[in-house]
Specification:
With 268 residues, the protein is mainly β. It contains three helices and 14 strands. The protein has helices at residues 60-67, 161-165, 240-244; strands at 4-15, 18-31, 34-43, 48-58, 88-96, 101-110, 113-122, 127-138, 169-181, 184-196, 199-209, 212-221, 228-239, 258-267. It has a 14-stranded mixed beta sheet with strand order 1-2-3-4-5-6-7-8-9-10-11-12-13-14. A hairpin with a 2-residue loop joins strand 10 (184-196) and strand 11 (199-209). It is globular, with a radius of gyration of 23 Å. The termini are far apart. 6% of the residues are buried.
Length: 268
């Protein structure tokens, strides 16, 4: 029930009755309402693969609903904003050397919010570095409907994917000019995550919030039978009045003051 079409010029190099190299020139792939265009080329017996892919704007929720015909267990939770994820597009350029160094540069646009993602893979050193950057990002429309605040932490789960899936050292750097969460904004955000096998670290986190500064580091060690974690954080000069808002029945602030807090938490 899903329409599929592919238009391309295909080139192949045959060696000893096997495909040693190939090229897909100016391909146009349509899968339902999802349309992809681009080119892919390989060289030196597929030791080097390069190309580009562009996905035109599509409704992610509609695509998930269509693919449920093929994968019945596919699930997309309902979000507070019915227009969330209605416009998703991407442009990606890549050069892949499976035994050397590979790089993937992608600009992902979600509901008119551009996000730049750069992935650098050094296979010889078993190291992958992912850099994510955006001028501004509003996550309010993507909070899950009829669920607790703790469950909404899943919004940040994609940051952990490179750490969990890569077989060696993995590092994720996040640079955000401003992050909006419902009625609360954080600016000048820097996050550095590191993972190596069963050890995960927040090497650095810093952000400006409510006229103050937040800093944190953390470690989660899963290498032993009992997991061990530690968290160190400091909050400096945080103005509580704009953070906690005002009462619905009174114009006076519910809480006033400036918060300074140092946390050193360890556990297993």
């Amino acid at each position: 029930g899903i329409k599929f079409s592919l238009d391309t010029e295909l080139g192949m190099v045959l060696s000893q009755q096997k495909i040693s190299d190939f090229s897909l020139s100016d391909f146009s792939l349509a899968l339902g309402d999802l349309k992809l265009t681009g080119s892919i080329d390989s060289a030196e017996q597929m030791a080097y693969i390069s190309g580009n892919i562009e996905a035109q704007s599509f409704d992610l929720l509609s695509q998930v609903a269509a693919f449920k015909q093929l994968v019945p267990d596919l699930y997309m939770p309902e979000m507070v904003d019915p227009q969330a994820l209605k416009s998703v597009s991407l442009i990606s350029n890549f050069s892949i050397e499976p035994s050397q160094t590979s790089e993937i540069q992608t600009q992902l646009v979600i509901d008119n919010q551009p996000i730049d993602i750069n992935v650098l893979i050094d296979e010889q050193r078993y190291k992958m570095t992912t850099t994510i950057s955006a001028d501004a990002l509003n996550l309010s429309p993507y909070f899950l409907k009829n669920t607790s605040a703790s469950n909404n932490a899943a919004l940040f789960a994609p940051l952990a994917i490179p750490l969990a899936l890569w077989h060696g050292k993995s590092q994720v750097e996040v640079h955000l000019g401003q992050l909006d969460l419902d009625n609360f904004s954080v600016s000048n955000i820097y996050l550095n995550l590191f993972g190596n096998r069963n050890v995960f670290k927040v090497n650095a986190f810093s952000a400006d919030a409510s006229e103050g500064q937040i800093d944190a580091t953390a470690t989660l060690d899963l290498s032993n039978q009992v997991a061990v974690f530690n968290l160190q954080s400091s909050i400096n000069n945080l103005n509580l009045e704009p953070l906690l808002g005002v009462s619905a029945t009174n114009s006076d602030p519910q809480v006033e003051g400036v918060l300074n807090l140092t946390i050193n938490l360890q556990g297993s």
